[in-house]
């Protein structure tokens, strides 16, 4: 049974940093494409960043490029999202998602992922 668990969310002032972690139990993460998505109140869920199985291919949404960094440690079955220079508009519930069948390239479409975590709240105060 696959389980994804996010951690690292919290309350931070604008300009601050947080690091989110997504840890998988079950199959090894080393053959999974992983994505970070977020959903703000009243808005649709959107992709933030995505990484392929090896970490050699990465995608960032334009709104976070240059501020967020996605990385993975397959030995720890964990994918990270380092978020720097946070803005109030980054406030949302952040979700990680994984797929073990389409892992060659980063996946940016929600529908391409089979497994989701429960989400972690990130709140950025102005």
Number of helices: 0
Task: Tell me the series of helices and strands, N- to C-terminal.
Answer: EEEEEEEEEEE
Spans of at least 5 consecutive residues whose pLDDT stays below 50 are none
> How much is the radius of gyration in Å?
13 Å
Measured distance between first and last alpha carbons: 40 Å
Number of strands: 11
Classify the secondary structure makeup into a structural class. Answer: mainly beta
Q: Give the overall silhouette.
A: globular
Percent range of helical residues: under 10%
The major pleated sheet works out as: 7 strands, mixed
- Percentage beta strand: over 45%
Mean pLDDT: 96
Task: Give structural attributes.
single chain; 126 residues; mainly beta; seven-stranded mixed beta sheet; 11 strands; 0% helix; 48% strand
């Amino acid at each position: 049974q696959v389980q994804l668990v996010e951690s690292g969310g919290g309350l931070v002032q604008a300009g601050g940093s947080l690091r989110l972690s997504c840890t998988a139990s079950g199959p090894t993460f080393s053959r999974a494409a992983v994505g970070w998505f977020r959903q703000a109140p009243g808005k649709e869920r959107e992709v933030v960043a995505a990484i392929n199985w090896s970490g050699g291919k990465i995608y960032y949404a334009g709104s976070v490029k240059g501020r967020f960094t996605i990385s993975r440690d397959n030995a720890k079955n964990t994918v990270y999202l380092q978020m720097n220079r946070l803005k109030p508009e980054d406030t949302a519930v952040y979700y990680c998602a994984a797929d073990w069948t389409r892992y060659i390239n980063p996946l940016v479409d929600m529908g391409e992922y089979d497994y989701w975590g429960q989400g972690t709240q990130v709140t950025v105060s102005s």
